[in-house]
Amino acid sequence: MTREITYVEAIAEALDEELSRDDDVILFGEDVEEFGGNFGETEGLYEKHGRDRVRNTPLSEIGIAGMALGAAVGGIRPVAELQFADFAATAGDEVFNQIPKQPYVSGGRLEAPLTIFAPSGAGIGAGAQHSQSVHSWLGNVPGWVVVTATTPYDAKGLFKSAIRDDNPVFFLPHKMLSETKGEVPDEEYTLPLGEAVVEEDGEDVTVVATQLMFHRAKEAAAEVDADVEIVNPRTFAPLDTETIAESVRKTGRLVVVDETVERYGTQGYIANEIVENEFFSFDAPPKTIGVKDVPIPLSPPLEQEVLPSADRIAAGIESLF
Amino acid sequence: MWERMTQDVNVDDDTARRFLEEMLRIDIFEEETKERFGDGEIPGFVHLSGGHEGSHVGMGAAMRDEDWLAVGGARLIGQYIAKGVPLPEIMAELYGRVDGSNRGHGGQMHVADVDRKLYGHAATIGSGQNPAVGLALAEKVKGTDNVAVTTIGDGGTSRGSFHTALVFAAYWDLPVVFVIENNQWAISTPAESLSPDSLSDYGDPHNMATESVDGSDVEEVYRAVSDAIERARNGEGPSVIESRVVRLVPHFEGDKETYRDEAEYERLKEEKDPIENYRERLLENDVLTEGEIEDMVANIQDEVSEAVEFARESPEPEPEAAYEHVYRTPLYGQGE
């Protein structure tokens, strides 16, 4: 049996269930208590689980991320929120130098089972410092498991797995999807990390897309005169290239669309992985589509200009035939 | 010529002997490290602890085995020894060998031993204090009375992350002891150009207990850190201690120290060497004889030689080991 919930409710349910299941799980971040998070993602948790388990922090991502690292090494399972994914940069040393590298430099003796989650993505007119998709930044630093969520089903199942995983996991919901609805199972479930999923079967072309871009790719697929297969990577690092390669072996064409900036972005990396290993499966050159190489502007017409639209994705697909 | 005044020994004889022995262990281990590095046996670069031994040993002795140490600053090896990491494991790690504490993945700046509650080091100076706050939070959540001690140099206190850690520790009154080893120099930048009279004053805006002590006196550091740990264990929150030490060595091996005044440097070596001073003090107070100290030194030299042999005989890692320990696999649910 399933029921319909919103994407934000899925996130709140994942947190609630993991806080209930495991006493070592604690949640902290800015405004996670009564305020309930910017998008309602922590609503009701503080009242239910108490102030020892759900903690407001002072305003510093350095403190939040650094404390999460120490708490994880110290033997508990912290889940820490940054209010916007862009703020990974304000905790730059913790996010890029400390968390992903400490388990490695310890020779595997030190374990950091922490989760940081932060809403990412553009589309709400939040400007250049509250709209970025940062999984390309994070994916460039070995040590992070980088996970994105596309539907309420993904958001709940992947977030629960992120919390249970023994690696540092950066979990990235997309803020434009907050109020979207979808089916989730009535019973408890988790979804595997490190595995991509074929969301739509097709024969002619493989489109790799996640988060908001997945939904736009679906729109694009309905517009074009081709049978489109859509693969959702779910985890960006480490990437499940095999599921994508298998799809391309069938379709012979590849479009990678992602909301990260095109320059040195995820799209080029994914395309390269497949081209290098599956070159002779291709019937056409791969196509990559991302945010144009500019900061995200505020005004809606400008913002929409730089984000991949369904039309741009459709044009990209059609260019391969 | 500076005259030493006879100072009392304020700890019991066993503890006093242990203090001197541990400081000598750091010194002899490091002198050997310097030689091995000079001969090209140790890769990378090394920072030595000369002048900081009293601070390291006093702090280490004040801690229980169950208390966390998150080391900072650049004087590291002495702190690893003070936290009880065996010399062979440290030396093999300096050599980058498989039997090193970190299997050769870390090196001099990253010795970590979580079983002995040594968190390790944020080699980007000043980033170790927020993890220390997290370690203290974990102990509090688990309901223990263990504390987290974290060190930083004078240079590191200029990082915002240090001040953030003070904010976070104070916010929940967490059991953290911040020890600032002020050796007067951030490589070549003098600490006297910083505005506080004492760097422990940085705790004042957070209403923390603060103290500034002569860090070249092992007993002073032992007392001050013990008091701070006691407060932390009793739920009285974090403290900031400034341990005023003297850097009697270059920043790293190879630093020509063109920025130091030679006469002043010589004076400090004469007056502020924590080992020499404590040695004299124990002799004057009849805690040890010259002969006993010679035996102590000889024993430590044997220990250090064994550590070097252990490191030399430990195999180099297989190149493929570079790909280990990036992730714990399978990831959750992967392949099921």
From TrEMBL, chain A:
Cofactor (UniProt): thiamine diphosphate
Keywords: Oxidoreductase, Pyruvate, Thiamine pyrophosphate
Molecular function terms from GO: oxidoreductase activity
Record domain Transketolase-like pyrimidine-binding: where: 5-180
Source species, domain of life: Archaea
InterPro entries cross-referenced by the UniProt entry: THDP-binding, Transketo_C/PFOR_II, Transketolase-like_Pyr-bd, Transketolase_C
UniProt-listed GO biological process terms: organic acid metabolic process; sulfur compound biosynthetic process
PANTHER family assigned to the protein according to its UniProt record, in alphabetical order: PYRUVATE DEHYDROGENASE E1 COMPONENT BETA SUBUNIT (PTHR43257), PYRUVATE DEHYDROGENASE E1 COMPONENT SUBUNIT BETA (PTHR43257:SF2)
Listed name of the protein: Pyruvate dehydrogenase (Acetyl-transferring) E1 component beta subunit
Organism: Natronolimnohabitans innermongolicus JCM 12255
Lineage: Archaea, Methanobacteriati, Methanobacteriota, Stenosarchaea group, Halobacteria
